[in-house]
Amino acid sequence: MHRTARSNRIRLVAIGLGLAILYFTFSPWSFGYDSESVRLTQFMNSKETGTPAVVKPSSFNWSSVASQHVSETLIVPWNKHARLPRVQYVFDKESNEEAQSREYRRTQVRNVFQRDWQAYRKFAWMKDALMPMTGSYRDQFSGWAATLVDSLDTLWIMGLKAEFDEAVAAVAGIDFGNSTSTTVNTFETNIRYLGGLLSAYDLSKRPILLAKAIELGDLLHLAFNTENGMPVDFIDFQRAKTGEKLLVEPTVVSASPGTLSLEMTRLSQITGNPKYYTAVSGVMSLFYRNQNRTNIPGLWPTYVSMSRKDVTTGSQFTLAGSADSLYEYLPKMHGLLQGAEPMYDTMSRGFLDAANEHMLFRPMLPGEDDILISGNANANDDGKTSLDPESEHLACYLGGAYALGGKILQRPDDIETGAKLTKGCMYAYKSMASGVGPERWNMVACESRTNCKWNEETWVKERQKRPEWKEHLPRGFTTVKDPRYILRPEAIESVFILYRITGRRQYQDAAWDMFQAVRNATHTQYASGSVPDVTIPIDTSKNEDYMESFWLAETLKYFYLAFSPPDLISLDDYVLNTEAHPFLIPR
Ligand SMILES: *[C@@H]1O[C@H](CO)[C@@H](O)[C@H](O)[C@H]1NC(C)=O
Ligand SMILES: *[C@@H]1O[C@H](CO)[C@@H](O)[C@H](O)[C@H]1NC(C)=O
Ligand SMILES: *[C@@H]1O[C@H](CO)[C@@H](O)[C@H](O)[C@H]1NC(C)=O
Ligand SMILES: *[C@@H]1O[C@H](CO)[C@@H](O)[C@H](O)[C@H]1NC(C)=O
């Protein structure tokens, strides 16, 4: 079957080549913008790589829609003399024995990936997500093959060349002019699809990927075609085609408008077209100007209003889900621009300090482990802040964010904070009966980070306040409010970053324990499925029949990279978006 499909495609190349040249000649980036990376000659060369290079333009040309919101064009800032501090540890040469064990581990990760990819290929090809237990599929992200696009760079990184070529050829036929839903989710489309295309392009330089990234970038750019230039959370697909302004929602979670910057900036860097960077700079300046005017200066409330350009009103604060990647992207933008736009430096320092003071806590634990957990906070207008010691898997990115921020901003204390936060999530994994961390939990916060003695009575008193407490839960936890594991990457993401930054082997060993537990718990009929309860021994027949695209895009990629030689996707060369897609830092 594989062979037949391939030779059909190769025959199509001949027919497609004529059409494709026409398309490339008339596409907006073949003239007008000076972009070294996209040239017709390079496109022709791609034949040598064996990729069937048939680009089928989408049924609607998004670049033909003129945005009615006009603002002064900003050029992507660049200081070619700037050089941020080195991020990665300088690793010693490993022994043969170490190399063997590391290679064994990464082969195990790749085996899981290959099984799951083959299942996607067989049962859900060109669909958004695989149902791993029944061998069916779901389209929940406009039907543009989310899992396929999200997995491109992982295929490349794992050296699965034939699979990569086949997937790139399939990308050529995706129609961004049609959608299975009437509205397009701006955030998800940006991080999964645009992020996926850009990183696969950065790694492979296949022009098909850039052509499709531009089509999609032009669609996403229309999210900013609004009265005040702020983006909509959901793009009304038909209205966007007419060029009429879209209506900005009154209230959104802060991560939605706050997680467009890396992708839009990278697209401007690659194409030389500044419009994407210009659009996203408007939102980020709004966050910047108001960072110190909130109830917790340095942080923004969980809910913000893009229609009123209000990012200050509100008393709920979190660094976890709903807000997470707004914060994650601040030091990463500093990295991608190599410090050329100072507002990302200021915003990064502001949030790292404020979060450390108001949101992080040391939990009271029977072993008195010196770890940190990220909680939530409520802050009234009078400046009174109260900590809610509840955390979730989504908050586990924060250890990596502190360590990365600490490294590039030269704040060594933040690297240690990042290490303790990462150990907090490692602790949540190893405490559970399955060895896999839960989705949401509560602990008891100590007043002091240096003096945090275990007190059984305090724990009993605290857990009695919690209707969600259960007899079988590990000591130290007062709830596991949501006991699922839905294939999330954030814990291994931070473990990977801490390993690359500190060089400490304990992170690699922790990654291996986590991998074995996660593999066992998620292994179902055809591929990997979510776990309903990690607090009890696993029965995988009870798993959920759904495989999120981020399992292949992020979770297995981070596991694989944790066991790879450290120069594979070096953090000195790449910035990873919140969907684990590496973007090349231009030099
Ligand atoms: C899409 O529209 C732009 C702007 O009108 C035009 O320059 C470009 O040639 C069009 N692309 C295609 C493939 O028709
Ligand atoms: C759009 O997709 C639907 C199915 O999702 C299909 O019926 C329709 O023909 C497509 N339209 C175009 C213009 O391709
Ligand atoms: C916010 O406050 C910090 C600390 O005082 C300061 O360094 C930073 O420049 C301020 N940010 C803005 C946008 O004024
Ligand atoms: C995973 O399963 C294998 C085989 O069933 C078993 O040997 C191993 O101990 C399990 N590992 C974990 C971490 O549960």
TrEMBL record:
<dbReference type="GO" id="GO:0016020">
    <property type="term" value="C:membrane"/>
</dbReference>
<dbReference type="InterPro" id="IPR036026">
    <property type="entry name" value="Seven-hairpin_glycosidases"/>
</dbReference>
<comment type="similarity">
    <text>Belongs to the glycosyl hydrolase 47 family.</text>
</comment>
<feature type="disulfide bond">
    <location>
        <begin position="396"/>
        <end position="425"/>
    </location>
</feature>
<keyword id="KW-1133">Transmembrane helix</keyword>
<keyword id="KW-1015">Disulfide bond</keyword>
<keyword id="KW-0378">Hydrolase</keyword>
<feature type="active site" description="Proton donor">
    <location>
        <position position="439"/>
    </location>
</feature>
<feature type="active site" description="Proton donor">
    <location>
        <position position="188"/>
    </location>
</feature>
<dbReference type="InterPro" id="IPR001382">
    <property type="entry name" value="Glyco_hydro_47"/>
</dbReference>
<feature type="transmembrane region" description="Helical">
    <location>
        <begin position="12"/>
        <end position="31"/>
    </location>
</feature>
<keyword id="KW-0812">Transmembrane</keyword>
<keyword id="KW-0326">Glycosidase</keyword>
<feature type="active site">
    <location>
        <position position="324"/>
    </location>
</feature>
<keyword id="KW-0106">Calcium</keyword>
<feature type="active site">
    <location>
        <position position="490"/>
    </location>
</feature>
<dbReference type="Pfam" id="PF01532">
    <property type="entry name" value="Glyco_hydro_47"/>
</dbReference>
<dbReference type="GO" id="GO:0036503">
    <property type="term" value="P:ERAD pathway"/>
</dbReference>
<dbReference type="GO" id="GO:0004571">
    <property type="term" value="F:mannosyl-oligosaccharide 1,2-alpha-mannosidase activity"/>
</dbReference>
<dbReference type="InterPro" id="IPR012341">
    <property type="entry name" value="6hp_glycosidase-like_sf"/>
</dbReference>
<keyword id="KW-0472">Membrane</keyword>
<protein>
    <recommendedName>
        <fullName>alpha-1,2-Mannosidase</fullName>
        <ecNumber>3.2.1.-</ecNumber>
    </recommendedName>
</protein>
<keyword id="KW-0479">Metal-binding</keyword>
<dbReference type="InterPro" id="IPR050749">
    <property type="entry name" value="Glycosyl_Hydrolase_47"/>
</dbReference>
<dbReference type="GO" id="GO:0005509">
    <property type="term" value="F:calcium ion binding"/>
</dbReference>
<comment type="pathway">
    <text>Protein modification; protein glycosylation.</text>
</comment>
<feature type="binding site">
    <location>
        <position position="578"/>
    </location>
    <ligand>
        <name>Ca(2+)</name>
    </ligand>
</feature>
<dbReference type="GO" id="GO:0005975">
    <property type="term" value="P:carbohydrate metabolic process"/>
</dbReference>
<dbReference type="GO" id="GO:0005783">
    <property type="term" value="C:endoplasmic reticulum"/>
</dbReference>
